[in-house]
C-alpha cells in the first residue's frame, strides 16, 4: 500500500533538516576523532543535545551531533552543524539562537527554546576543547 | 434525500487518530442535510415551518433518550462535550453559590487523568471557594476506589458537603475504562451525584444510564461520526443545576439559544448507528488492537505499553518508545501519511508532557516519548501493517540520532 504525505507545521527548511539531518553521529567509533564535546538539556523538559567538534588551528574542521527532542530541536542542531563547519572558534562563539532560526526561516514561538540549546551546546563543546588544550 | 460525495479517508492519508475526532458518517450527513436549506425552521416559531423543526427536535430527543434509557426531559443538547462538562460542573457550583450568597461551599471530587475540560473547570471553580480533590489512579489508570470513598466520608464528616463526583467513562489518551457502576455505588451510598465524561466511550461502550449508575453523562458528536460543535448532557431529573446560558427557555431552561437542529439530528443518528454496530465493531477492533500491540512488542525493542491490557477501549493503542521524543515520531509518521497523536509536551502548548502518563507513573522521558494510535471504522489489518512498518523505521532512525538512546545502550554494555 502506498500512502503519500502532505502539509507541514514548520518551514520547508525545518522539514528538510528534520527529515534528512546532516552531520549526525552515525557510529560511536567516530567520537575518537573529535577533540571538543558538549552536552546540554535535560529529559524533564524533553530536549537533550550532544555535540562533538574537531578543532584545528582555531577552526571547526568537522562536527557531529546527537539530539533527543522534537522536530525543531533536531532540525536546529542539524542546521547549526552546517553553519559552524569551517567557522573560526571566535565566530562560532558569537553564533546566536536567532542566527540558527534565520537559517531555518523561523520557528514557532513555543519552539524557540529548542534552538537555544543548539548554540549553548556549541559553546560547551568549545569550552571543553579549550580546557583540554590550554 | 440529498446525496453528497463520499470524501472520507482518501488514499493520501491513513488516519489513526479517531479519538481526536472522527469523520462524519455519510448516513449521518444525509439525514442532517435537509435541516440546513429545506427545513430550516426555528422550533420556537408558532407556524408550520417552526413546527416541523419542533417535531424534529422532539423526535431526536426521544431517539437519544431511548438509547440512554432515560426520560426525554433529561437530555440537554449543547454545543460540545466540553460545554456539557462545563454545564454539569458549573451548573452544580452556581446552584450552591446562589444558596450561599455568592460563595462556593463544598467539595468536588474528580480523577487525576480527567480531560482538561473537567480539570480546568474545577481549577477555575476553586477561586469561588470550592474545595477540589483529585483522586489517584493506579498504573493502569484505574481510579483508587478506596481513596474515593475515604475522601467523600472525610469531607462529609468535617461538614463539607461533597457536591459532585466527576469521573470519566474512558480515558482519551490510554483508553482505560473506569468501573462506573462501582464508583456510582460509592457515591450514592453517601448521597453524592456522579457525573461522567463519556465522550470517548460512546462509540463502543454501553450507554444505559440506569445500568451505569450515573446521574449526569456527557457525550459529543465529533467522536462518534457526528458533527463537531454538538454535544449533550444527560441530567437525571433529581439533580438540580443552574443554566450557564440565558436568554430563552430552550432545553428545559438549561441552555438558551436556537437549537442546532441539523447537529442534533446528526447526534441522534450517530448514536443510533453506534448502538447498532457497537458489539460487532468492538470485537473487530479488539482483534486489531491486540494484533498491533503484540506486533509492536515483538518487533520494536524497549517499548512500554501504556494503560490497561484488558479494561481498555477496543480502539486505543498507546506506547512509549525509550530514548526518543513523541513529536518527532509523529511528524515522521505524518510524512508517511499516518496521523497519530503524542503525549509529548512538544506537540502541545505547555512544557509538561501528558498529565495522564505522569499520573500512571511514567517518568518524564517516557511520557515525552509516547504515541497514541486510535482506530475507527476504516481501520484495517493492512493499514496497521503499513503503520508498523513506518513506525519501525522512524524509531530506528530517531534512536540513531538520540543521545538518550545511545546512553542507555552504553549503560547496558557495562
UniProtKB/TrEMBL annotation, chain A:
Pfam families: NifU_N (PF01592). Residues 10-133 form the NIF system FeS cluster assembly NifU N-terminal domain. Transmembrane segments: none annotated. One of its GO terms (molecular function) is iron-sulfur cluster binding. GO terms for biological process: iron-sulfur cluster assembly. InterPro entries: NIF_FeS_clus_asmbl_NifU_N. This is NIF system FeS cluster assembly NifU N-terminal domain-containing protein.
Automatic annotation (TrEMBL), chain B:
The keyword Iron-sulfur applies. Its cofactor is pyridoxal 5'-phosphate. Pfam families: Aminotran_5. It comes from Candidatus Iainarchaeum sp. Gene3D superfamilies: Aspartate Aminotransferase, domain 1, Type I PLP-dependent aspartate aminotransferase-like (Major domain). Belongs to the class-V pyridoxal-phosphate-dependent aminotransferase family. NifS/IscS subfamily. The keyword Iron applies. Keywords: Iron, Iron-sulfur, Metal-binding, Pyridoxal phosphate, Transferase. Residues 15-386 form the Aminotransferase class V domain. This is Cysteine desulfurase. SUPFAM superfamilies: PLP-dependent transferases. GO terms for molecular function: iron-sulfur cluster binding; metal ion binding; transferase activity.
Amino acid at each position: 500500500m502506498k500512502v503519500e504525505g502532505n502539509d507541514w507545521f514548520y518551514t520547508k527548511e525545518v522539514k528538510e533538516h528534520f527529515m534528512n539531518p546532516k552531520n549526525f553521529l552515525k557510529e560511536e567509533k567516530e567520537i575518537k576523532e573529535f577533540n571538543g564535546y558538549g552536552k546540554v538539556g535535560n529529559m524533564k523538559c524533553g530536549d537533550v543535545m550532544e555535540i562533538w567538534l574537531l578543532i584545528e588551528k582555531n577552526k571547526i574542521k568537522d562536527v557531529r551531533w546527537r539530539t533527543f527532542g522534537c522536530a525543531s530541536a533536531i532540525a536546529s542542531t542539524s542546521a547549526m552543524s552546517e553553519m559552524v563547519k569551517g567557522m573560526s572558534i571566535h565566530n562560532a562563539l558569537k553564533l546566536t539562537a536567532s542566527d540558527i532560526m534565520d537559517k531555518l526561516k523561523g520557528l514557532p514561538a513555543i519552539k524557540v527554546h529548542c534552538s537555544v540549546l543548539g548554540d549553548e551546546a556549541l559553546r560547551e563543546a568549545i569550552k571543553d576543547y579549550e580546557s583540554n588544550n590550554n | 434525500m440529498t446525496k453528497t460525495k463520499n470524501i472520507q479517508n482518501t488514499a493520501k492519508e491513513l488516519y489513526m487518530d479517531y479519538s481526536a475526532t472522527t469523520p462524519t458518517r455519510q448516513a449521518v450527513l444525509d439525514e442532517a442535510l435537509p435541516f440546513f436549506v429545506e427545513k430550516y425552521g426555528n422550533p420556537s416559531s408558532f407556524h408550520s415551518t417552526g413546527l416541523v423543526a419542533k417535531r424534529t427536535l422532539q423526535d431526536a430527543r426521544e431517539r437519544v433518550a431511548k438509547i440512554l434509557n432515560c426520560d426525554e426531559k433529561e437530555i440537554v443538547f449543547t454545543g460540545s462535550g466540553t460545554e456539557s462538562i462545563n454545564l454539569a460542573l458549573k451548573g452544580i457550583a452556581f446552584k450552591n453559590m446562589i444558596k450561599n450568597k455568592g460563595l462556593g461551599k463544598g467539595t468536588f471530587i474528580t480523577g487525576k487523568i480527567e480531560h482538561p475540560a473537567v480539570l480546568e473547570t474545577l481549577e477555575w471553580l476553586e477561586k469561588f471557594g470550592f474545595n477540589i480533590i483529585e483522586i489517584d489512579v493506579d498504573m493502569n489508570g484505574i481510579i483508587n476506589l478506596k481513596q474515593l470513598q475515604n475522601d467523600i466520608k472525610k469531607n462529609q464528616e468535617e461538614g463539607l458537603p461533597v457536591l459532585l463526583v466527576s469521573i470519566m467513562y474512558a480515558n482519551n489518551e490510554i483508553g482505560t475504562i473506569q468501573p462506573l457502576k462501582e464508583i456510582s455505588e460509592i457515591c450514592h451510598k453517601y448521597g453524592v451525584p456522579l457525573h461522567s465524561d463519556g465522550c470517548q466511550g460512546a462509540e463502543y461502550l454501553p450507554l444505559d444510564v440506569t445500568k451505569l449508575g450515573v446521574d449526569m453523562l456527557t457525550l459529543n458528536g465529533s467522536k462518534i461520526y457526528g458533527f463537531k460543535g454538538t454535544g449533550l448532557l444527560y441530567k437525571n431529573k433529581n439533580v438540580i443545576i443552574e443554566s450557564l446560558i440565558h436568554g430563552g427557555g430552550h432545553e428545559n431552561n438549561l441552555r438558551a439559544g436556537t437549537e442546532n437542529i441539523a447537529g442534533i439530528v446528526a447526534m441522534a443518528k450517530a448514536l443510533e448507528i453506534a448502538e447498532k454496530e457497537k458489539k460487532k465493531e468492538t470485537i473487530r477492533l479488539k482483534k486489531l488492537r491486540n494484533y498491533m500491540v503484540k506486533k509492536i512488542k515483538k518487533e520494536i525493542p524497549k517499548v512500554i505499553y501504556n494503560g490497561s491490557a484488558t479494561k481498555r477501549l477496543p480502539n486505543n493503542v498507546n506506547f512509549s518508545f525509550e530514548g526518543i521524543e513523541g513529536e518527532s515520531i509523529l511528524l515522521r509518521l505524518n510524512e508517511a501519511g499516518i496521523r497519530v497523536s503524542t503525549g509529548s509536551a512538544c506537540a502541545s502548548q505547555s512544557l509538561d508532557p501528558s498529565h495522564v502518563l505522569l499520573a500512571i507513573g511514567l517518568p518524564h522521558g517516557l511520557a515525552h516519548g509516547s504515541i497514541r494510535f486510535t482506530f475507527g471504522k476504516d481501520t484495517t489489518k493492512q493499514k496497521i501493517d503499513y503503520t508498523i512498518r513506518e513506525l519501525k523505521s522512524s524509531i530506528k532512525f530517531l534512536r540513531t540520532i538520540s543521545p538518550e538512546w545511545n546512553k542507555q545502550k552504553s549503560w547496558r554494555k557495562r
